[in-house]
Amino acid sequence: MEKNVEKVWSNCLKIIKDIVEWQHFKTWFEPIQPVSLKGNVLVIQVPSQFFYEYLEEHYVNLMSKSLKRELGKEARLEYRIMVDSGNSRNKPVTMDVAGQGFKAYGNNEMDFPLVINTPVRNPFVIPGLKKVQIDPQLNPSYTFDTYVEGDCNRVARRAGKTVAEKPGANSFNPLVIYGGVGLGKTHLAQAIGNEVKRLHPNKVVLYVSAEKFIQQFMDHSRNNAINDFIHFYQLIDVLIVDDVHFFAKAEKTQDAFFAIFNHLHQSQKQLVLTSDKSPKDLEGLNERLLSRFRWGLSADLQVPEYETRVEILELKMKKNGLEMPKEVVKYIAYNISNNVRELEGALISLLAQSSLNRREIDLDLAKKVLRNFVKSSSKEITIDTIQKMVCEYFDVAYDKLLQKTRKREIVQARQITMYLAKAFTKNSLKTIGEHFGGRDHTTVIHSCQTVKDLMDTDGVFRENVLELQQKVQLAAM
Ligand code: ADP
Ligand code: MG
After folding, report:
1. Which residues are paired to 46 by β-bridges?
2. What is the pLDDT of residues 415-466, one digit of tens each?
3. Ligand 1 touching residue 160 (CB < 6 A)
4. I need a labelling partner for 155 at 20 to 30 A (CA). Which of 101, 261, 424, 437 fits?
Protein backbone atom coordinates (compact mmCIF):
# COMPACT_ATOMS: atom_id res chain seq x y z
CA MET A 1 0.00 0.00 0.00
CA GLU A 2 1.20 3.48 -0.86
CA LYS A 3 2.16 5.35 2.27
CA ASN A 4 0.75 8.75 2.89
CA VAL A 5 3.20 11.64 2.94
CA GLU A 6 1.46 13.54 5.72
CA LYS A 7 1.26 10.45 7.87
CA VAL A 8 4.90 9.51 7.39
CA TRP A 9 6.05 13.01 8.25
CA SER A 10 3.79 13.31 11.27
CA ASN A 11 5.09 10.00 12.60
CA CYS A 12 8.63 11.29 12.20
CA LEU A 13 7.68 14.46 14.03
CA LYS A 14 6.31 12.46 16.93
CA ILE A 15 9.72 10.95 17.54
CA ILE A 16 11.53 14.21 16.93
CA LYS A 17 9.28 16.10 19.30
CA ASP A 18 10.16 13.76 22.13
CA ILE A 19 13.85 14.37 21.68
CA VAL A 20 14.28 17.96 20.60
CA GLU A 21 13.75 20.73 23.09
CA TRP A 22 10.47 22.48 22.66
CA GLN A 23 11.88 25.82 21.62
CA HIS A 24 14.05 24.21 18.97
CA PHE A 25 11.23 22.03 17.76
CA LYS A 26 9.08 25.08 17.22
CA THR A 27 11.83 26.94 15.45
CA TRP A 28 13.12 24.22 13.18
CA PHE A 29 10.42 21.64 12.67
CA GLU A 30 7.09 23.39 12.75
CA PRO A 31 7.82 25.48 9.65
CA ILE A 32 8.60 22.37 7.59
CA GLN A 33 5.98 21.18 5.13
CA PRO A 34 5.93 17.64 3.78
CA VAL A 35 5.64 17.81 -0.02
CA SER A 36 5.67 14.35 -1.52
CA LEU A 37 6.58 10.77 -1.02
CA LYS A 38 7.81 8.77 -3.97
CA GLY A 39 8.88 5.29 -3.04
CA ASN A 40 11.43 5.76 -0.32
CA VAL A 41 12.11 9.45 -0.97
CA LEU A 42 10.40 11.99 1.22
CA VAL A 43 10.50 15.59 0.05
CA ILE A 44 10.05 18.33 2.61
CA GLN A 45 9.81 22.04 2.02
CA VAL A 46 11.91 24.39 4.10
CA PRO A 47 11.70 28.20 4.19
CA SER A 48 15.27 29.05 3.22
CA GLN A 49 18.75 27.93 2.35
CA PHE A 50 19.89 28.76 5.86
CA PHE A 51 17.17 26.55 7.25
CA TYR A 52 18.22 23.69 5.06
CA GLU A 53 21.84 24.02 6.09
CA TYR A 54 20.96 24.23 9.74
CA LEU A 55 18.83 21.10 9.58
CA GLU A 56 21.53 19.25 7.72
CA GLU A 57 24.14 20.26 10.24
CA HIS A 58 22.22 19.67 13.42
CA TYR A 59 19.37 17.32 12.84
CA VAL A 60 20.27 15.08 9.94
CA ASN A 61 20.99 12.20 12.24
CA LEU A 62 17.71 12.49 14.05
CA MET A 63 15.67 12.92 10.87
CA SER A 64 17.43 10.02 9.26
CA LYS A 65 16.81 7.69 12.10
CA SER A 66 13.16 8.56 12.43
CA LEU A 67 12.56 8.40 8.68
CA LYS A 68 14.23 5.03 8.46
CA ARG A 69 11.86 3.76 11.08
CA GLU A 70 9.01 4.77 8.82
CA LEU A 71 10.31 3.80 5.40
CA GLY A 72 13.05 1.29 6.04
CA LYS A 73 16.81 1.36 5.60
CA GLU A 74 16.72 2.77 2.08
CA ALA A 75 14.81 5.87 3.10
CA ARG A 76 16.04 9.17 1.69
CA LEU A 77 15.25 12.77 2.31
CA GLU A 78 15.10 15.61 -0.18
CA TYR A 79 14.55 19.26 0.47
CA ARG A 80 12.57 21.80 -1.44
CA ILE A 81 14.06 25.14 -0.53
CA MET A 82 11.91 28.22 -0.78
CA VAL A 83 13.97 30.71 -2.78
CA ASP A 84 11.26 33.28 -3.21
CA SER A 85 7.83 33.04 -1.67
CA GLY A 86 6.14 34.76 -4.62
CA ASN A 87 3.16 37.10 -4.69
CA SER A 88 -0.10 37.52 -6.56
CA ARG A 89 1.73 37.93 -9.87
CA ASN A 90 4.76 35.73 -9.48
CA LYS A 91 4.79 32.12 -8.60
CA PRO A 92 6.96 31.01 -5.71
CA VAL A 93 10.41 29.87 -6.71
CA THR A 94 11.80 26.75 -5.14
CA MET A 95 14.88 24.63 -5.54
CA ASP A 96 15.17 20.91 -4.86
CA VAL A 97 18.25 19.41 -3.27
CA ALA A 98 19.03 15.96 -1.98
CA GLY A 99 19.92 15.62 1.67
CA GLN A 100 23.67 15.45 2.11
CA GLY A 101 25.34 13.46 4.81
CA PHE A 102 22.12 11.56 5.24
CA LYS A 103 23.48 8.16 4.34
CA ALA A 104 26.35 8.26 6.74
CA TYR A 105 24.02 8.31 9.70
CA GLY A 106 21.43 6.15 11.19
CA ASN A 107 22.71 2.73 10.24
CA ASN A 108 24.78 2.27 13.31
CA GLU A 109 22.79 1.47 16.42
CA MET A 110 25.05 3.38 18.74
CA ASP A 111 25.29 6.70 16.97
CA PHE A 112 21.90 7.77 18.07
CA PRO A 113 20.55 8.31 21.54
CA LEU A 114 17.10 6.86 20.96
CA VAL A 115 16.53 4.04 23.39
CA ILE A 116 17.42 0.96 21.47
CA ASN A 117 15.47 -2.08 22.38
CA THR A 118 17.69 -4.77 20.99
CA PRO A 119 19.87 -6.00 23.84
CA VAL A 120 23.53 -5.52 23.14
CA ARG A 121 26.07 -7.50 25.04
CA ASN A 122 28.87 -5.00 25.16
CA PRO A 123 27.10 -1.74 25.18
CA PHE A 124 29.37 0.19 22.88
CA VAL A 125 31.35 -2.34 21.04
CA ILE A 126 30.84 -5.02 18.47
CA PRO A 127 32.11 -8.31 19.94
CA GLY A 128 35.54 -9.24 18.68
CA LEU A 129 36.84 -5.71 18.23
CA LYS A 130 39.94 -4.68 20.08
CA LYS A 131 39.45 -2.44 23.03
CA VAL A 132 41.03 0.61 21.43
CA GLN A 133 38.23 0.57 18.91
CA ILE A 134 35.61 1.48 21.43
CA ASP A 135 33.97 4.61 20.17
CA PRO A 136 34.34 7.32 22.84
CA GLN A 137 30.85 8.72 22.08
CA LEU A 138 32.21 12.24 22.09
CA ASN A 139 30.91 15.25 20.26
CA PRO A 140 34.00 16.71 18.54
CA SER A 141 32.75 20.27 18.80
CA TYR A 142 32.81 20.24 22.61
CA THR A 143 36.44 21.21 23.18
CA PHE A 144 38.40 23.47 25.49
CA ASP A 145 38.93 25.87 22.60
CA THR A 146 35.22 26.45 22.41
CA TYR A 147 34.74 26.60 26.18
CA VAL A 148 35.12 30.19 27.30
CA GLU A 149 36.84 30.68 30.63
CA GLY A 150 35.38 33.06 33.21
CA ASP A 151 35.14 33.47 36.97
CA CYS A 152 32.08 31.24 36.76
CA ASN A 153 34.02 28.16 35.68
CA ARG A 154 37.75 28.84 36.22
CA VAL A 155 38.44 26.15 38.81
CA ALA A 156 36.45 23.46 37.04
CA ARG A 157 37.96 24.30 33.66
CA ARG A 158 41.54 24.29 34.92
CA ALA A 159 41.01 21.06 36.86
CA GLY A 160 39.57 19.58 33.69
CA LYS A 161 42.69 20.55 31.76
CA THR A 162 44.94 18.97 34.36
CA VAL A 163 42.91 15.79 34.27
CA ALA A 164 43.13 15.68 30.49
CA GLU A 165 46.89 16.12 30.55
CA LYS A 166 47.53 13.43 33.15
CA PRO A 167 44.48 11.22 33.32
CA GLY A 168 44.45 9.00 36.42
CA ALA A 169 47.76 10.32 37.70
CA ASN A 170 46.46 13.39 39.49
CA SER A 171 44.70 14.16 42.73
CA PHE A 172 41.43 15.09 41.01
CA ASN A 173 40.10 11.59 40.82
CA PRO A 174 37.21 11.54 40.49
CA LEU A 175 36.67 15.01 39.11
CA VAL A 176 33.09 15.96 39.89
CA ILE A 177 31.71 18.92 37.95
CA TYR A 178 28.44 20.22 39.27
CA GLY A 179 26.00 23.04 38.57
CA GLY A 180 22.52 23.88 37.29
CA VAL A 181 21.10 23.15 33.86
CA GLY A 182 22.66 24.72 30.83
CA LEU A 183 25.77 25.92 32.63
CA GLY A 184 28.19 23.80 30.63
CA LYS A 185 28.68 20.52 32.51
CA THR A 186 28.30 18.30 29.48
CA HIS A 187 30.45 20.56 27.34
CA LEU A 188 33.28 20.60 29.87
CA ALA A 189 33.11 16.85 30.55
CA GLN A 190 33.25 16.16 26.82
CA ALA A 191 36.06 18.65 26.34
CA ILE A 192 38.10 16.61 28.80
CA GLY A 193 37.39 13.49 26.79
CA ASN A 194 38.31 15.11 23.51
CA GLU A 195 41.50 16.56 24.96
CA VAL A 196 42.57 13.17 26.32
CA LYS A 197 42.03 11.68 22.89
CA ARG A 198 44.14 14.44 21.33
CA LEU A 199 47.02 14.17 23.82
CA HIS A 200 46.88 10.43 24.44
CA PRO A 201 45.38 8.75 21.37
CA ASN A 202 45.83 5.28 22.84
CA LYS A 203 43.81 5.87 25.95
CA VAL A 204 40.36 4.36 25.91
CA VAL A 205 37.90 7.16 26.60
CA LEU A 206 34.19 6.70 27.03
CA TYR A 207 31.45 9.23 27.59
CA VAL A 208 28.09 7.99 28.78
CA SER A 209 25.07 9.69 30.28
CA ALA A 210 23.83 8.22 33.54
CA GLU A 211 20.47 7.61 31.89
CA LYS A 212 22.03 5.55 29.16
CA PHE A 213 24.14 3.71 31.67
CA ILE A 214 21.01 2.77 33.63
CA GLN A 215 19.27 1.66 30.46
CA GLN A 216 22.20 -0.53 29.47
CA PHE A 217 22.40 -1.98 32.92
CA MET A 218 18.76 -2.95 32.80
CA ASP A 219 19.12 -4.51 29.34
CA HIS A 220 22.04 -6.55 30.58
CA SER A 221 20.37 -7.63 33.77
CA ARG A 222 17.38 -8.86 31.77
CA ASN A 223 19.79 -10.96 29.76
CA ASN A 224 21.77 -12.18 32.76
CA ALA A 225 24.83 -10.39 31.47
CA ILE A 226 25.68 -8.05 34.32
CA ASN A 227 29.20 -9.39 34.56
CA ASP A 228 29.79 -8.63 30.89
CA PHE A 229 28.51 -5.16 31.52
CA ILE A 230 30.82 -4.53 34.47
CA HIS A 231 33.82 -6.05 32.70
CA PHE A 232 33.26 -3.90 29.69
CA TYR A 233 33.33 -0.73 31.75
CA GLN A 234 36.41 -1.88 33.60
CA LEU A 235 38.33 -1.70 30.31
CA ILE A 236 38.03 2.05 30.11
CA ASP A 237 40.93 4.42 30.89
CA VAL A 238 38.91 7.60 31.19
CA LEU A 239 35.28 7.11 32.07
CA ILE A 240 33.00 10.15 31.89
CA VAL A 241 29.53 9.75 33.37
CA ASP A 242 27.21 12.67 32.81
CA ASP A 243 24.38 13.64 35.18
CA VAL A 244 24.98 11.10 37.93
CA HIS A 245 22.07 12.53 39.91
CA PHE A 246 19.95 10.28 37.70
CA PHE A 247 21.40 7.35 39.62
CA ALA A 248 19.21 8.37 42.54
CA LYS A 249 17.02 5.45 43.53
CA ALA A 250 18.44 3.16 40.84
CA GLU A 251 20.02 1.02 43.50
CA LYS A 252 21.10 -1.96 41.47
CA THR A 253 22.71 0.29 38.93
CA GLN A 254 24.56 2.06 41.73
CA ASP A 255 25.93 -1.27 42.91
CA ALA A 256 27.27 -2.02 39.46
CA PHE A 257 28.71 1.45 39.18
CA PHE A 258 30.30 1.09 42.59
CA ALA A 259 32.13 -2.03 41.42
CA ILE A 260 33.27 -0.29 38.25
CA PHE A 261 34.33 2.83 40.13
CA ASN A 262 36.43 0.88 42.61
CA HIS A 263 38.16 -1.14 39.96
CA LEU A 264 39.00 1.88 37.82
CA HIS A 265 40.11 4.01 40.75
CA GLN A 266 42.39 1.28 42.08
CA SER A 267 43.93 0.83 38.64
CA GLN A 268 44.58 4.58 38.47
CA LYS A 269 42.09 5.11 35.73
CA GLN A 270 40.38 8.47 35.54
CA LEU A 271 36.75 9.15 36.41
CA VAL A 272 34.95 12.33 35.47
CA LEU A 273 31.43 12.81 36.76
CA THR A 274 28.89 15.58 36.40
CA SER A 275 25.91 16.26 38.57
CA ASP A 276 23.31 18.90 39.26
CA LYS A 277 24.36 19.19 42.91
CA SER A 278 27.54 18.88 44.88
CA PRO A 279 28.20 15.35 46.20
CA LYS A 280 27.37 16.46 49.70
CA ASP A 281 23.89 17.56 48.63
CA LEU A 282 23.05 14.67 46.34
CA GLU A 283 20.06 12.72 47.54
CA GLY A 284 19.05 9.16 46.81
CA LEU A 285 22.60 7.98 46.25
CA ASN A 286 24.25 5.35 48.33
CA GLU A 287 26.50 6.82 51.01
CA ARG A 288 29.44 4.59 50.14
CA LEU A 289 29.26 5.86 46.56
CA LEU A 290 28.99 9.47 47.67
CA SER A 291 31.97 9.14 49.99
CA ARG A 292 34.00 8.02 46.98
CA PHE A 293 32.79 10.94 44.92
CA ARG A 294 34.37 13.13 47.59
CA TRP A 295 37.77 11.54 47.24
CA GLY A 296 38.81 13.76 44.37
CA LEU A 297 37.84 17.31 43.52
CA SER A 298 34.34 18.74 43.28
CA ALA A 299 34.22 21.93 41.27
CA ASP A 300 31.13 23.95 40.55
CA LEU A 301 29.93 25.94 37.57
CA GLN A 302 28.20 29.24 38.20
CA VAL A 303 26.06 31.42 36.00
CA PRO A 304 28.47 33.32 33.74
CA GLU A 305 28.93 37.00 34.35
CA TYR A 306 28.04 39.55 31.68
CA GLU A 307 31.52 39.79 30.07
CA THR A 308 31.72 36.03 29.79
CA ARG A 309 28.29 35.90 28.24
CA VAL A 310 29.39 38.39 25.59
CA GLU A 311 32.48 36.32 24.91
CA ILE A 312 30.48 33.11 24.61
CA LEU A 313 28.10 34.69 22.12
CA GLU A 314 30.96 36.05 20.07
CA LEU A 315 32.64 32.68 19.99
CA LYS A 316 29.47 30.87 18.92
CA MET A 317 28.98 33.41 16.15
CA LYS A 318 32.50 33.06 14.92
CA LYS A 319 32.22 29.30 14.89
CA ASN A 320 29.13 29.53 12.72
CA GLY A 321 30.53 32.26 10.48
CA LEU A 322 27.95 34.79 11.59
CA GLU A 323 28.08 38.47 12.18
CA MET A 324 25.85 40.88 13.97
CA PRO A 325 26.23 44.36 15.39
CA LYS A 326 28.00 44.59 18.71
CA GLU A 327 25.03 46.38 20.25
CA VAL A 328 22.85 43.35 19.49
CA VAL A 329 25.34 41.00 21.10
CA LYS A 330 25.41 43.20 24.17
CA TYR A 331 21.65 43.38 24.22
CA ILE A 332 21.29 39.59 24.23
CA ALA A 333 24.03 39.07 26.81
CA TYR A 334 22.49 41.67 29.05
CA ASN A 335 18.95 40.33 28.87
CA ILE A 336 19.53 36.60 28.97
CA SER A 337 21.40 35.87 32.10
CA ASN A 338 20.18 32.55 33.48
CA ASN A 339 22.19 30.03 31.60
CA VAL A 340 24.25 29.47 28.51
CA ARG A 341 21.78 27.21 26.78
CA GLU A 342 19.18 29.96 26.79
CA LEU A 343 21.76 32.35 25.48
CA GLU A 344 22.40 30.05 22.55
CA GLY A 345 18.69 29.51 22.09
CA ALA A 346 18.16 33.24 21.75
CA LEU A 347 20.97 33.53 19.23
CA ILE A 348 19.54 30.70 17.16
CA SER A 349 16.01 32.08 17.25
CA LEU A 350 17.33 35.40 16.10
CA LEU A 351 19.12 33.80 13.17
CA ALA A 352 16.07 31.80 12.25
CA GLN A 353 13.89 34.90 12.33
CA SER A 354 16.30 36.91 10.27
CA SER A 355 16.48 34.14 7.72
CA LEU A 356 12.72 33.56 7.63
CA ASN A 357 11.95 37.23 7.18
CA ARG A 358 14.98 37.96 5.01
CA ARG A 359 15.92 40.74 7.31
CA GLU A 360 19.26 41.91 8.62
CA ILE A 361 19.83 41.38 12.31
CA ASP A 362 19.53 44.67 14.14
CA LEU A 363 18.52 45.83 17.57
CA ASP A 364 14.84 46.07 16.66
CA LEU A 365 14.69 42.50 15.47
CA ALA A 366 16.60 41.35 18.55
CA LYS A 367 14.13 43.10 20.81
CA LYS A 368 11.24 41.49 19.00
CA VAL A 369 12.71 38.01 19.08
CA LEU A 370 13.81 38.19 22.67
CA ARG A 371 10.37 39.30 23.69
CA ASN A 372 8.96 36.16 22.10
CA PHE A 373 11.74 34.12 23.55
CA VAL A 374 10.95 35.16 27.07
CA LYS A 375 7.25 34.90 26.46
CA SER A 376 7.48 31.34 25.22
CA SER A 377 8.32 30.21 28.69
CA SER A 378 5.79 32.38 30.44
CA LYS A 379 2.29 32.42 29.00
CA GLU A 380 0.22 35.53 28.67
CA ILE A 381 -2.62 35.40 31.19
CA THR A 382 -5.93 36.97 30.23
CA ILE A 383 -8.65 38.56 32.32
CA ASP A 384 -11.03 35.79 31.21
CA THR A 385 -8.70 33.10 32.48
CA ILE A 386 -8.49 34.79 35.86
CA GLN A 387 -12.25 35.21 36.00
CA LYS A 388 -12.75 31.51 35.33
CA MET A 389 -10.22 30.55 37.95
CA VAL A 390 -11.79 32.71 40.62
CA CYS A 391 -15.30 31.47 39.79
CA GLU A 392 -14.14 27.92 40.08
CA TYR A 393 -12.33 28.60 43.31
CA PHE A 394 -15.30 30.22 45.06
CA ASP A 395 -17.89 28.19 43.19
CA VAL A 396 -19.53 31.31 41.83
CA ALA A 397 -21.40 31.45 38.51
CA TYR A 398 -19.51 33.42 35.85
CA ASP A 399 -22.47 35.67 34.97
CA LYS A 400 -22.90 36.66 38.64
CA LEU A 401 -19.43 38.09 38.56
CA LEU A 402 -20.51 40.51 35.84
CA GLN A 403 -23.91 41.48 37.22
CA LYS A 404 -24.62 44.05 39.87
CA THR A 405 -25.26 41.53 42.63
CA ARG A 406 -24.49 42.89 46.09
CA LYS A 407 -24.16 39.55 47.82
CA ARG A 408 -21.05 39.65 49.92
CA GLU A 409 -19.34 36.51 48.55
CA ILE A 410 -19.88 37.65 45.01
CA VAL A 411 -18.71 41.16 45.67
CA GLN A 412 -15.53 39.79 47.20
CA ALA A 413 -14.94 37.33 44.38
CA ARG A 414 -15.36 40.19 41.92
CA GLN A 415 -12.96 42.42 43.81
CA ILE A 416 -10.34 39.69 44.06
CA THR A 417 -10.65 39.02 40.35
CA MET A 418 -10.03 42.67 39.57
CA TYR A 419 -7.11 42.75 41.92
CA LEU A 420 -5.52 39.71 40.27
CA ALA A 421 -6.26 41.03 36.79
CA LYS A 422 -4.44 44.22 37.71
CA ALA A 423 -1.49 42.30 39.11
CA PHE A 424 -1.10 39.65 36.40
CA THR A 425 -2.17 41.27 33.16
CA LYS A 426 -1.03 44.38 31.38
CA ASN A 427 -4.57 45.61 30.87
CA SER A 428 -5.54 49.16 31.79
CA LEU A 429 -7.94 49.80 34.63
CA LYS A 430 -10.49 50.85 32.04
CA THR A 431 -10.22 47.55 30.15
CA ILE A 432 -10.46 45.57 33.35
CA GLY A 433 -13.62 47.45 34.33
CA GLU A 434 -15.13 46.73 30.92
CA HIS A 435 -14.65 43.02 31.52
CA PHE A 436 -16.95 43.23 34.53
CA GLY A 437 -20.11 44.34 32.85
CA GLY A 438 -18.86 47.82 32.00
CA ARG A 439 -17.74 49.18 35.35
CA ASP A 440 -15.51 52.24 35.32
CA HIS A 441 -11.90 52.49 36.34
CA THR A 442 -12.58 54.03 39.75
CA THR A 443 -14.47 50.86 40.73
CA VAL A 444 -11.39 48.85 39.83
CA ILE A 445 -9.14 51.09 41.91
CA HIS A 446 -11.55 50.84 44.81
CA SER A 447 -11.66 47.03 44.50
CA CYS A 448 -7.90 46.68 44.51
CA GLN A 449 -7.64 48.86 47.58
CA THR A 450 -10.35 46.91 49.40
CA VAL A 451 -8.57 43.63 48.70
CA LYS A 452 -5.30 45.01 50.03
CA ASP A 453 -6.98 46.27 53.20
CA LEU A 454 -8.84 43.04 53.80
CA MET A 455 -5.67 41.05 53.34
CA ASP A 456 -4.15 43.00 56.18
CA THR A 457 -7.03 42.42 58.53
CA ASP A 458 -8.72 39.15 57.61
CA GLY A 459 -6.59 36.00 57.84
CA VAL A 460 -8.95 33.67 55.97
CA PHE A 461 -9.44 36.18 53.19
CA ARG A 462 -5.72 36.59 52.93
CA GLU A 463 -5.18 32.84 52.65
CA ASN A 464 -7.73 32.66 49.87
CA VAL A 465 -6.13 35.44 47.89
CA LEU A 466 -2.65 34.01 48.30
CA GLU A 467 -3.77 30.59 47.18
CA LEU A 468 -5.47 32.03 44.13
CA GLN A 469 -2.45 34.14 43.40
CA GLN A 470 -0.36 31.00 43.37
CA LYS A 471 -2.75 29.28 40.99
CA VAL A 472 -2.60 32.19 38.57
CA GLN A 473 1.15 32.26 38.83
CA LEU A 474 1.36 28.57 37.98
CA ALA A 475 -0.98 29.00 35.04
CA ALA A 476 1.30 31.73 33.75
CA MET A 477 4.32 29.45 33.68
P1 ADP B 1 24.69 21.34 31.06
O2 ADP B 1 25.23 19.99 30.70
O3 ADP B 1 25.31 21.91 32.30
O4 ADP B 1 23.20 21.37 31.13
P5 ADP B 1 25.78 22.07 28.50
O6 ADP B 1 27.16 21.59 28.66
O7 ADP B 1 24.88 21.22 27.67
O8 ADP B 1 25.10 22.35 29.91
O9 ADP B 1 25.83 23.55 27.92
C10 ADP B 1 24.75 24.18 27.29
C11 ADP B 1 25.23 24.94 26.09
O12 ADP B 1 26.01 26.04 26.53
C13 ADP B 1 26.15 24.11 25.21
O14 ADP B 1 25.83 24.35 23.88
C15 ADP B 1 27.53 24.60 25.53
O16 ADP B 1 28.36 24.54 24.40
C17 ADP B 1 27.30 26.02 25.95
N18 ADP B 1 28.26 26.49 26.95
C19 ADP B 1 28.17 26.35 28.29
N20 ADP B 1 29.21 26.92 28.91
C21 ADP B 1 29.99 27.43 27.94
C22 ADP B 1 31.23 28.16 27.94
N23 ADP B 1 31.87 28.46 29.08
N24 ADP B 1 31.74 28.52 26.75
C25 ADP B 1 31.09 28.23 25.60
N26 ADP B 1 29.94 27.56 25.54
C27 ADP B 1 29.38 27.16 26.68
MG1 MG C 1 24.26 18.17 30.39
Report:
1. 81
2. 999 999 998 888 889 999 999 988 989 999 999 999 999 998 998 999 899 8
3. no
4. 261
| Spacing, Cα 272 to ligand 2 middle (Å) | 13
Name the closest-CA residue to atom 4, ligand 1.
182
If one looks up domain 5-112 in CATH, what number appears? 3.30.300.180
For residue 152, the ligand 1 atom closest to its alpha carbon is: 23
pLDDT tens-place string over residues 224-262: 889 889 989 988 999 999 999 999 989 999 999 999 999
Give the tens place of pLDDT for each residue, 127-148: 444 444 688 999 999 999 999 9
Beta carbons of 310 and 333 less than 8 angstroms apart: yes
The residues that bridge with 98 in the sheet, in sequence order, are: 78
Residues 208-217: what's their mean pLDDT? 94
The pLDDT confidence band at residue 90, using thresholds 50, 70 and 90, is low
Q: Quick one: CATH architecture of 383-475?
A: Orthogonal Bundle (1.10)
Angle, alpha carbons 468-471-475 (nearest 5°): 140
Ligand 1 atom nearest to CA at 153: 23
Of all helices (H) and strands (E), which one includes residue 42?
strand 41-46
Question: Rounded to 5 degrees, what are φ and ψ at 98?
Answer: -80, 150
Beta-sheet pairing, 41-46 with 33-38: antiparallel
Domain ranges of the chain: 5-112, 133-301, 306-374, 383-475
Give residue-wise pLDDT tens across range 281-324: 999 999 999 999 999 999 999 999 999 999 999 999 998 888 89
Cis peptide before 201 (omega within 30 of 0): no
How many Å lie between the centroid of ligand 2 and the Cα of residue 344? 14
- 331 or 108: which carries more pLDDT confidence? 331
Tell me if 414 CB under 6 Å of ligand 1: no
Domain 306-374: give its CATH code.
1.10.8.60
The closest ligand to the CA of 141 turns out to be: 1
Conformational region of residue 42, where left means phi above 0, alpha means psi within -120 to 50, and beta covers everything else: beta
Q: How confident is the model at residue 81 (pLDDT cuts 50, 70, 90)?
A: confident
Pocket test for ligand 1, best of 152, 154, 177, 187 (most atoms within 8 A of CB): 187
Percentages helix, strand, coil for the chain, rounded to the nearest 5? 55, 10, 35
What's the rounded mean pLDDT across residues 65-84? 87
Q: What is the predicted pLDDT for the residue at 98?
A: 73
- Which one, of 260, 266, 211, lies nearest residue 236 by Cα? 260
Q: Cα–Cα distances in Å, from 350 out to 273, 347, 355?
A: 34, 5, 9
CA dist., res. 176 & res. 172, Å (int): 8
